[in-house]
Amino acid sequence: MKRPFFAVLGGMGTLATESYIRLVNRATHAHCDQDYLDYIVFNDSSVPDRTAYILGESDENPFPVLADDIEKATAMGASFIVLTCNTAHYFYDDFQALTTVPILHMPRGAVARMAQRYPKDRFPRVGFLGTVGSRKSGVYKRAVEEAGYTFVEPTDELQARITSLIYDDVKGSGELNLERYESVLRDMLDPAGPCACDTLILGCTELSVLNEAFPLPQLPVIDAQAVLVEDTVARAEALRA
Fold first, then answer.
1. Does the active-site annotation cover 85?
2. 32, 85, 195, 197: which one is catalytic?
3. What CATH class has 4-104+225-238?
């Protein structure tokens, strides 16, 4: 009997997809080859830059490329689909309209986990770290505010540093720097600083790569990709039961 499998829409970027797959395998309750989950990865590195399109800096639309991947995953019989790019959730409703196969929603999952771990009466101000495209899309802002929190955007100076971490360090050189990464988190959490956040959401999978390399459990941070990993494994293992 064929076991259920899920499809991963990746390649945005490839290192982030690699991190997601590695964490899924690590989180799976496996003791032999056959215990691991069944999945297919579309590492579609040809997907145009999502932020550039959302900001009107490029006419290359990522939607048709990802829509084609969704149609392929549906035709292959995937039980659910994982979209491993926060910024691409700008198109989420249109993606889901293409298929009856459920597509996991990473931002909503992250906010739900934040509400469990950091209740709004004690952690009311939520800082968002991600691409400018994700900020403009409003996907996280809506989810955070609907949950009853105050959504805090970084200052222009902090956003420039976040963008550099994403595009220069992870996507570009691949050289990860703990000091550069941690300083951004601490500056956003500084109660005397301009953001004065109580908790943070890492809403870009390149930042999740940094979080995997440099975990800082002492800081009140929700990593959207880490939550997606947990949700993926829970759903996939439930399908086997």
1. yes
2. 85
3. alpha beta
